[in-house]
Structures are given as structure tokens and as C-alpha cells.
Amino acid sequence: MGILTGGGDCPGLNAVIRAVVIAGHVRYHYETIGYLDGWRGVLERRSRPLDPVESAGLLAMGGTVLGTSRTNPFAQERGGDRVVENLASARVDALIAIGGDDTLGVAHRLGAFGVSVVGVPKTIDNDLSGTEVTFGFQTAVQTATEAIDRLGTTAESHHRVIVCEVMGRNAGWIAAEAGIAGGAAEILVPEVPFDLDAVCAKLTARHQRGQFFSIVVVAEGALPADPALAESATSARSGASADAFGHARLGGIGDWLAGEVERRTGYEARATTLGHIQRGGTPTAYDRVLATRFGVAAVEAVHDGDFGMMVALRSCDIVRVSLQEAVGNPKTVDPALLEVAAPFLG
Ligand code: F6P
After folding, report:
1. 8 C-alpha vs ligand 1 centroid, how far in Å?
2. Ligand 1, pocket residues at CB < 6 Å
3. Of residues 1, 53, 65, 3, the one with CA closest to residue 31
4. pLDDT tens figures, 100-109
5. Which of 75, 235, 288, 297 could make a disulfide contact with 311, Cβ separation 3.0–4.6 Å?
6. Bridge partners, 224 (sequence order)
7. Which residue range is the domain that position 225 belongs to?
């Protein structure tokens, strides 16, 4: 087998690698090689053998020992054909691709080139369709919640509004869950463009009720509904060029929002961007278990010859869904979750 990790890193990647290598070896005497830096390693024929004994220590380790990249083979000359040729020359019979929408989108397209591929769903954003949860998400929510708890004590001491910007490009899952878990006064997600006047009015009412501090959790992809304000917020972003999959680099809405809130309400406001702190470090116990279940299930899919599929979590069970179903259609926040949050906001 070959295995690769693509896209943004995520707590639990190493736990999946460990599960694939050891379960493949113990159950079926499979040998596994790891491609370095995602699809780039396949294109450049860079890989290394993965030994079951050495892999044993990977369970709790953050990041990915294989490295990752946002390389898109289909953005390169003969990219798909080169992947096929290089897998064949390395005598890789089956490829396990661990990634989010971009990495698994490539995996899906490679099916048409005859590549035998199984996907494992990864992203802290939890925005991949076909699975109820991706591994890494729960760890990110835990990290963000701990940060919100800490921001709460300093916000209360200084009677401030603190805007906490979390990751979430298309979907506000981290903002919604960490916002609920951290008792935020406001939760702003990409799925629901926000009314800045209404946000400020709610914060004012809250302070007038005697709650002299507020935590506003905002996903990096959230924007105001008003087109002029949305343009102003967008121009506050980093401005870095798009990646190989066409995604702009986000980040900056928190600072912009804190400035607007302070100007409009008169309350002192600060912003904290959690950024890559949410992606780093050791996975929670939940994510270690989920990653292990996914890894073992991916080996079973390989053994069954069930390619073009992604392992997924549904109703607490590990199932297989087609890659086609999983990619190209981000899973946005369930409105019911936002309704649960609503009574506690403001
Ligand atoms: O992997 C998803 C993600 O964490 C997004 O939430 C975020 O927008 C993006 O990656 C950041 O990517 P990079 O690390 O390349 O800046």
C-alpha cells in the first residue's frame, strides 16, 4: 500500500498512519510506503518505507511524519498520468489518501485513471460531506474552547469585548461548537452573513444588563451581510495569493470586527486569532480512537478491493461512502446547532 497526507495538517494524521501500517501488517502482511508531502511526493517519487514497529509510537503525535502540501496534480502537466506511472513503478497496488475535500477530490479523479484509492476524511474544519465527523475536528474544538475560557477571564477583568477568530473557511463548525462550549455572547459563521448593527445592539444590551464583558467567536470565513461592510472586511484579509486549489488565504475578520465593535459601541475591544494553534499538537482521546477506526477500516476496504470509497462515521458506525458523494460539496453547519446556541447569545 501507499499512504499520503494532503492539505492542512490535523491532529490524528499520525494515528491513522500508525493504524494503517500496523493493521495492514498484522492482518494481511501488507507492506506500506509513505509518500512525502502529499500528492507532491507521488509526483516527485519521494517516499519511504513505513515499519510497523517504528509506527507504534505515532498514536499521540501531532502533525504528520510524512509531511503535507497543497499540491494539486491536476494543476500540472500530465499530472494524473504521472501519478499512475509513479505508483506503478513503486509497485503500489492500493493508495490510501488522507485528506479533506481537495486531497480526496484528486483521489476521486484518479479513479478514472485506474488508480485504486481509498480515502480517509481529515480536516479540523469538519466540512467534508459523507461523514458526520472528520478526525481532528474534536481536538480543534477542545483547543478553541480552552482558549475561549481563558479569554473570558481577562475580558471580564477588563470589561472588554474580545473577538476570538477561529478557523473555518466555508463552514463554521469550530465556531459553533467552541462558541457553545465556551459560552460565547455571539457566534458568527460563514453560512449566515451577519448584521453588524444587530451584533453591536446585542452586545450593548448585554452590557446594559450588567454583563460587562463579551466573547464574540467568529469563523475566519464569516462576513457581514452588508455588501460595503463585506468589502471592507474582505480587504482586511491577508491578501496572499490563492493556493493550487484556488483557495484564498483567510484571516483578519477578527481584527476588523473588534475595531468596528469598539467604534460603534464605545466598549474597549480586542481580537485574538487562534490560527494554527488549532491545528497543532496531540489529538484528543476521541480523535485518537476515530483516527484508529478510520485507519483500520481503510485497510479493510483495500483488502476487499472496494476502491473509490471513503471511510466515514455515521450513527457511531464506520461505513464506506463513495468519494464522489464526499467531495465537491462542503458540509455546512447544521442550522439546528445554531438554534441550540441561540438562547445563550447576547
Ligand atoms: O485545513 C483547513 C484550514 O485549517 C482552514 O481552516 C484554513 O483556512 C486553512 O487550512 C489554512 O491553511 P494554511 O495552513 O495553508 O494557511
Report:
1. 5
2. 7-8, 123-125, 167-169, 220, 249-250, 279
3. 1
4. 999 999 999 9
5. 297
6. 194
7. 140-279
